[in-house]
Write a structure and sequence with these properties.
This protein is an alpha/beta fold. It has helices at 42-48, 75-87, 100-111, 129-133, 137-155, 159-169, 175-187, 203-206, 226-235, 254-257, 259-275, and strands at 5-11, 14-20, 27-31, 53-57, 94-98, 118-122, 214-219, 243-247. A hairpin with a 2-residue loop joins β1 (5-11) and β2. The protein is globular, with a radius of gyration of 18 Å.
């Protein structure tokens, strides 16, 4: 088990909880997806902690952080992470996010371009241009209701039942990620669902505004289709090209389902980043 400390920072009246491995090493911030918590990065963080100061926040409405308030919008997550960076006196962090956390990562890169040294995106909620143009509001509501129903079903289980469910449903996942996943489902604030437009504005608007080195990791079974990833790459205008890697044999939880390939991809990007 790797060692970490815990703490809170207050950003705009919201307590943001975080885990941190520490040490005089380059900082890397890991942002989890919806309904997860900071420790859902455990399997990745255990390896990164050998060379990096790993910071794993709980997003507002998740883990031990403050609950969703009336004024919450998704961009608040980005503002809160920037507040955490400033209060912890972190300089030039690499920021990596999964799903909802990838959206937060992009918002930081676009709105606070001086903060990240580089960003890494694990299957952000990027839909195809055709999907965006033909979006049906009724269909969107149905999808959101299905997501809520799925969560409600999980939140009614005990910790032990959740652990057993996770092991049975996800045989490829690292064991270190199973308990944090189960515990996160009991900590999540379902009020987030009322504000959960995590794919707006679209990647078409955001990607051209990113100025730092970027790695996009997708899979053949995830949200980001190959066509969408290629389109995003063509929109990228930063000095260095957007690096895109598609990993086979995984769904939305790429790092959990193809851990070795994911980590090798991540490690190569980080190694190249510090060579320049």
């Amino acid at each position: 088990m790797f060692e970490y400390t815990q703490g809170f920072v207050k950003v705009n009246s919201i307590n943001i909880h975080y885990y941190r491995t520490g040490g005089s090493k380059p900082p890397i911030i890991l942002l989890h997806g919806a309904t997860d918590n900071g420790l859902c990065w455990t399997s990745v963080a255990e390896l990164l902690a050998e060379q990096y100061d790993v910071i794993m926040p709980d997003a507002q409405g998740h883990g031990l952080s403050g609950r969703i308030d009336k004024g919450f919008t998704f961009i608040n997550h980005a503002h809160q992470i920037v507040g955490l960076v400033q209060k912890l006196d972190i300089t030039d962090p690499i920021i990596m996010g999964h799903s909802m956390g990838a959206g937060t990562t992009i918002n930081i890169a676009v709105n606070y371009p001086d903060i990240p040294k580089a960003i890494i995106l694990e299957d952000p909620a990027w839909r195809s241009q055709k999907s965006i143009e033909s979006e049906d509001e009724d269909e969107r509501v149905k999808q959101q209701e299905a997501f809520i129903k799925s969560y409600v079903g999980l939140s009614s289980l005990t910790r032990e039942e959740l652990i057993a469910e996770c092991r049975e449903s996800n045989p490829l996942w690292p064991e270190a990620d199973i308990i944090p996943w189960a515990e996160s489902k009991l900590q999540f604030d379902p009020a987030l669902f009322s504000s959960m437009h995590i794919d707006r504005p679209s990647y078409i608007e955001l990607v051209p505004k990113i100025t730092c080195p970027t790695l996009l990791i997708t899979s053949d079974g995830g949200i980001v289709a190959a066509e969408t990833a290629r389109h995003a790459s063509s929109l990228f205008k930063a000095e260095q090209p957007l690096q895109w890697v598609e990993i086979k044999g995984a769904g939305h939880n790429i790092r959990r389902e193809q851990f070795k390939t994911f980590y090798d991809t991540l490690n190569k990007f980080l190694g190249d980043l510090y060579l320049h």
